[in-house]
């Protein structure tokens, strides 16, 4: 560790202890570590380091998985922090459907720690919501995660559009999700030759991320990455 990084870590640790403690959202103990305590952080289902670089499904040696070899997605790399298991699944549901918006900051911070700083994209694009769903929910959870992330990385954030108010992906069987979002996105920006990072909360089948990647590639993007808080671990074949 460089002297500069060690100094930053030391300053960060001191600041955490100066700030008022708050109840951990998971165990209720007082935490100087953030919205959840340091002990609970160590028990969270962090994604295994050995996973497919394309879609983040665990693989034995970190090689490309069979599904991506057979049908490569339109994005070429996925950064995911957690496996979508308890209690991360409950926290994401609380964030999306019960307005626990303070969780957006820590999700963004965890993604920031997980992203390689040597190969940053040109732009960050959060998964868009249809205007009807945005009015109903009151916020776009992907944008709440993407905004502090883009700011911390000094990257411009752009927006694409969701053209159809499709049924929620979670309400559909896995094999129907690709058809549900086909042609659902549009981007009006010239992205010629650019590397784009798409931000979302959960990667399940990757259907929405793939369709959004198709949309940005149609505008000239030559490379697309996916940045997600959690990856559902299940056979997608």
Q: Descriptors for this entry?
A:
2 domains, Rossmann fold, globular, four-stranded parallel β-sheet, two-stranded antiparallel ribbon, 237 residues, alpha/beta
What does this structure look like?
The strands form three sheets. Strands 3-8-7-4 form a four-stranded parallel sheet. The chain has a two-stranded antiparallel sheet with strand order 1-2. A two-stranded antiparallel ribbon has the order 5-6. The protein is globular. A hairpin with a 6-residue loop joins strand 1 (22-23) and strand 2 (30-31). With 237 residues, it is an alpha/beta fold. It has two domains: 1-43, no CATH class; 48-231, Rossmann fold, CATH 3.40.50. The chain is built from nine helices and eight strands. Mean pLDDT is 87; it is low at 4-15.
């Amino acid at each position: 560790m460089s002297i500069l990084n060690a100094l930053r870590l030391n300053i960060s640790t001191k600041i955490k202890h100066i700030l008022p403690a708050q109840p951990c959202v998971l165990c209720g103990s007082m935490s100087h570590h953030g919205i959840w305590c340091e002990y609970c952080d160590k028990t969270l289902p962090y994604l295994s380091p050995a996973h497919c670089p394309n879609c983040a499904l665990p693989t034995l040696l970190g090689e490309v998985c069979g599904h991506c070899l057979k049908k490569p997605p339109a994005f070429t790399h996925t950064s995911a922090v957690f496996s979508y298991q308890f209690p991360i699944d409950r926290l994401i549901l609380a964030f999306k459907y019960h307005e626990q918006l303070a969780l957006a900051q820590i999700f963004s911070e965890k993604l920031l720690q997980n992203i390689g700083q040597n190969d940053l994209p040109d732009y960050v694009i959060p998964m868009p919501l249809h205007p009807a769903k945005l009015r109903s929910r009151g916020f776009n959870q992907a944008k709440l995660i993407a905004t502090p992330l883009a700011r911390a990385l000094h990257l411009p954030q752009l927006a694409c559009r969701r053209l159809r108010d499709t049924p929620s992906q979670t309400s559909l069987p896995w094999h129907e999700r690709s058809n549900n979002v086909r042609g659902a996105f549009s981007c009006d920006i010239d992205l010629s030759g650019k590397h784009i990072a798409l931000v979302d909360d959960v990667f399940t089948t990757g259907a929405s991320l793939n369709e959004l990647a198709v949309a940005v590639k149609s505008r000239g993007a030559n490379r697309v990455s996916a940045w997600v808080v959690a990856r559902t671990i299940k056979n997608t074949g």
